[in-house]
Amino acid sequence: MITLEHVSKSYKKKQVLAPTSIEIQEGGAYGIVGPNGAGKSTLLKLIASLERPTKGTIYFQGNPYSSSVKEVRQSIGYIPQEIALYEELTVKEQLDFWSNISSKKIDDAFVQSMKETLRLDEVANKRVQNLSGGWKRKLNLCVGFIHNPSICLLDEPTAGIDLAAKEDILTWLKALHQQGKTLLYISHDRYELHTLSDQFIVLMNGQVVFHDDKEMFQHTKSQLLKSQTGSQELERIISYL
User: Fold this and answer.
1) pLDDT-derived band at 49, boundaries 50, 70, 90
2) Dihedral sign, Cα of residue 102, residue 103, residue 108, residue 113
3) Which of these, 15, 34, 157, 224, could form a disulfide with 203 (CB 3.0-4.6 Å)?
4) What is residue 159's DSSP assignment?
5) Pairing between β-strand 151-155 and β-strand 2-11 as defined by DSSP bridges
6) With 80 as the cut, is the pLDDT of residue 100 above it?
7) Is 185 helix (H, G, I), strand (E, B) or coil?
8) Measuring CA to CA, which residue among 78, 85, 91, 97 is closest to residue 118?
9) Alpha-carbon distance 120 to 128, whole Å?
10) Domain holding 131: CATH number?
11) Are strands 151-155 and 14-24 parallel, antiparallel or unpaired?
12) Where is the ABC transporter domain (predicted)?
C-alpha cells in the first residue's frame, strides 16, 4: 500500500532519518518505537505527506506521492502530538466545522460511531477551552479521522491523559483495526504496543533497526540487543518490549 524506497530526511546539514526502505501493508497495525530524537515523528510526517523526503521516493498504491497527493491526503488521517483544535468552539461546533471543510464526503454513520465510542456526546456543548486533556485528546482524534481515512497515523495519541480516556481511545483504535484500517502510531506504552500492534518498527539515531511482526521481534530480540550494544537507551526499550 505504502512503500518507502531509500527515503531520507535532513534539515540543513543534520540528517534525522537515514535512507529507509520499508513497506506498509494494507490493514496492518504498526507500533513505532525508539528513543526520543530517533526520527519517529519525522517518519510519520513523511508518510502523512506533511514533509518531503530529502532523498528517495514514497509510493501510494504503486504511484509516487508527487503524482497522487490528493488521493494520499484523502486516504490518510494524521494525529500529531500537539492538540490542533479551536479553543473557543464547542465540541459540536468543532465537529461541524471540520465536517463542512472536508474535501471528502463525510460518512455520518462513521462519525456517529466514533463519537459514541469516545463518548463525545457527553460534552457536546462544552467549549474546548473548558475540557480536560483527555477529552481534548479524544476530540482531536475525532477531528483528525472525521473523513474516515483508510490509513491512520498517530503520534503518541494517549500522552498525558487519564486511564478512562486512554481506554476509550484504545477501544476505538482496536475497532478501526478490526474494520481493516491501517494503523501506524508512536507510543512509549508497552500495553498499548502489545494491545494494538501486529508489527514493530524500531528506530535508533534516524535508522530503522527492526521492522517485522511481534513474533519475529521476540525471536530476534537477543540478536538485536547485541547489534545495538553501546546504546543503553535503546537496550532498555528493546528489553522493555
Assistant:
1) very high
2) negative
3) 34
4) T
5) unpaired
6) yes
7) strand
8) 91
9) 12
10) 3.40.50.300
11) unpaired
12) 2-230
Beta bridge partners of 64: 59
Mean pLDDT of the chain: 91
Helices (H) and strands (E) in the chain, counts: 9, 10
* Domain total in the chain: 1
- Domain around 155: 2-240
Q: How far apart are CA 196 and CA 182, in angstroms?
A: 11
Q: DSSP alpha helices (H): ranges in the chain?
A: 40-47, 69-75, 91-101, 108-117, 133-144, 163-178, 190-196, 214-227, 232-240
Q: What is the pLDDT of residues 14-23, one digit of tens each?
A: 999 999 999 9
**The pTM is what?**
0.91
**Dihedral class, residue 174 (left if φ above 0, else alpha if ψ from -120 to 50, else beta):** alpha
